[in-house]
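anyone else get weird line breaks when pasting these?? whatever heres mine. first is seq + tokens for prot A
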Amino acid sequence: MQKLDNAKLRDCLSPAENGYNAFYGITQNPSAEKMHFHEYYQFLIIYTGAKHYMVNDNIYPVSYGKLMIIPPFHMHGMIDREKSPVYERALLSLTPEFLQNIGNRQLDFEQLINDKIASNQYCFDLDEESAAECKKLLAEVDVENRHANAWDRFANVSRLFPVLRMMLEASSSTYTEKRLTAPESLMHQILVYINAHYTEPLSLRQIAAKFGVSQSTLSHSFIQYAHQGVYDYILHRRIMLAKQRLYENIPLSEVAYQCGFGDYSNFLRAFTRITGKSPSAYRKELNAGGKTL
């Protein structure tokens, strides 16, 4: 079991070159988790340290063994964390290409997963035995995936099949209702409003006026709720959409416009600052890898 701080943990979560990665461990005294997104599928099993988890506009109560299935380009994160010194969870990260290929042309795992979450339901219940078995297998994958020999890679892929089976069985047999009271909170209403309008010109002043609060109250309360500022959240939503649009054969200036940036120079600066590469470089990598959505 690993005990990592947030900085070291970041590198453990994204898929390796083989298309998958796994993590099981405990983060000591975890800092607030910002809403974020990935370009791959993530299967998150929460054991301790979280109370509510959000995927897009949906909020779910969390207890031992909750399974979150998070597809690419979906904003997600903890809304409020338990007052606990540890955050224990297991993670499995898989690229779309890995899911398409692992079925050996006999089964399209990606489509199977997308069918399970087609109704925008992302939270499911693993029974206690399955949650414990997934923990054990993902911990083994976590350790063995640090080695490069072919046998370890084969052993890891063999471990992934029972994990995927248990997760897909859970998504077929259970349905977790969304929390009913959370969407009534003012900050959730504001977040949902931003999700619907982030490609439009938005300002702190305009949002505060629409919801009848002061700008200072909005700024402070939103940070407490989403663990990041209003402008930071809007920017990350725009960059998320931009990454999706860059899969398409449309001019970069049009991508900037569709994602709510006033001009290309603003888009270029923001995209490069957040991703570490320019939009053209990002698109070039997509084309070189033959990636599609």
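and prot B, same format (seq, then tokens)
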Amino acid sequence: MLLLATTNEITSQVPVNPFLWVIPLSIYLLSFVIVFARPAAYRPNVYGPAFAIAVIVAFALPLFLDGDYTLLRIAAELLPFGLGCMICHGKLSNQQPQSQDLTLYYMVMALGGAAGGVSISLLAPQLFADYWEYPATIIMVGIIGVASITPPFNKTAYTHRMLRPLAALVLIFSFGVIAYSSITESEDVIAQIRNFYGVIKVSEEEPDSPTDHLLIMTQSGENQGEQYTDEKLRHKPDCDFAADSGLGLALDYLTLRNPSLGRKLGAVGLGVGIMAALSNANDTVHYYELNPAVTDFANKYFFYLKDSAAKIDVVHGDGRLTLERELTTGSQQYDLLHVDAFHGNAPPVHLMTKEAFEIYLRHLKNDGFLVVTSHPGYLNASSLFRGLAKELGLTVKWFSSPDNCESDVGFAVFTRDEKFFLQENVKKRISQWPDNGSRTVLWTDQSSSLMSLMVWR
């Protein structure tokens, strides 16, 4: 339970590093090997108090990081996990029976692991609206750790005899820190739901201000878009999607190219529906959204879809598979297709292969635009974008976020219409590739590696 709960926590809340799950698994296996190979390595009088202190650090640290998930926070969350593994595996090792009962012993251990997996994977999403199985598991391990402390019966060893009560006090304090951290993180949340795809929250900032009241949607810790509630401001798209962004420039160019015609637009990934704010009365916007709860929240708490004069349609399902099925009845002939289904900075592999891009291009007009949102960070997809463009005979340029934006979100704009990149307002916004290189990488359905995009720093 501790392994799965911790892995869910750090991989869902930390900006995405797809290999991060390997670290807790390695710690789990290493602790198992250590205590079963050398049972004396488990010292409950050390690990119990240390675990309680590590829990305080792990849950207090986010209060000072202001929501910034750094390597320091990852390490802080892995520290109580490692100590907790030593406690649990140490208790198991100490209870190892004689050889004639080992079969039953290991069978019960295996059944316990299976029951823990079912609890975290199947029961927790139904019982908890957030990843509360993580603090719940931490609390249970903490109780086991303190209960395992065995002070000696030497009446003169006053410090040793006080170890368990002191550790219990530290553990109780850590429970208070957990409670305070959970309350602090949820105090601005006005709605949330958890399903198979993760936890979706709508939070607010400056609720008492008529002009600065802002609503923000997050999915598993990742910003899905935001909007002001003021009627004069709520029609403005998020800073990253402004008129001088890569997406905004491509949409404006389409209007100038055919001013009398409406634009047919597609988007893989709905978020709060920001692209609807960039569409006009004659436009048609077709969204492909995997998570139905995102659509519910976008319609209930945000205004982009409701206020848009364009014709809006949302189809639920995997974007690539849905587009592939639609080809059986013909091409959609989109003027622009926007792919915005990244989770953090990690590209979903099946949406970024040569075969996936071939599907997108079959749905585009010959001079249409394919715009991909990217979040350079632990992974940098620049070389992949260049490789796909080279393989498919497209021109691609990178447009970083405007200077007044706080985030590093940018757009890779693919097209066969070379005139677009010659526009003066477009040339001013073309940016250097985030990797400052020219190397190319090509992913296919048969061969892809996230390691090829890893930023080592």
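btw re prot B: The chain has two domains: 2-187, 222-453. The longest helix spans residues 102-127.
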